[in-house]
């Protein structure tokens, strides 16, 4: 689907949802969508709300958590760590 968007939309004129990174963190697997958003929407805020962080941690998305940390996302809490621990990340 991401490739279709690249081919069929003028992404520079597309208005992205403000919470798109939250959605990518919470409801996709891996980091592909997050990477795509960063590549095609350079001014996207790398702020992620607490709930998507907790959901990703609880789902055992260690690669996603590392990607977020490496890209400077702040907001990890003790609760996020607890959720990751439940899944033995």
Give keywords:
Ankyrin_rpt-contain_sf, 89 residues, mainly alpha, elongated, 57% helix, 0% strand
Task: Put the structure in a nutshell.
The chain is mostly helical. It has six helices and no strands. InterPro entries: Ankyrin_rpt-contain_sf.
Q: What is the ordering of alpha helices and beta strands?
A: HHHHHH
| Shape call | elongated
* SS summary, helix count: 6
Estimated share of beta-strand residues: under 5%
Biggest sheet details? none
Helix content: 55-70%
Distance between the termini: 29 Å
What structural class is derived from the secondary structure elements?
A: mainly alpha
Number of strands: 0
> How much is the average pLDDT?
83
Poorly predicted segments:
none
Provide the number of structural domains.
1
| Rg over alpha carbons | 14 Å
């Amino acid at each position: 689907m991401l490739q279709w968007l690249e081919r069929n939309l003028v992404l520079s004129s597309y208005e992205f949802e403000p919470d798109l990174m939250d959605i990518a963190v919470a409801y996709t697997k891996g980091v592909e969508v997050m990477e795509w958003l960063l590549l095609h929407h350079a001014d996207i805020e790398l702020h992620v709300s607490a709930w998507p962080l907790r959901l990703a941690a609880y789902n055992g998305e260690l690669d996603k958590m590392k990607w977020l940390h490496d890209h400077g996302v702040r907001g990890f809490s003790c609760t996020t760590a607890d959720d990751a621990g439940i899944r033995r990340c």
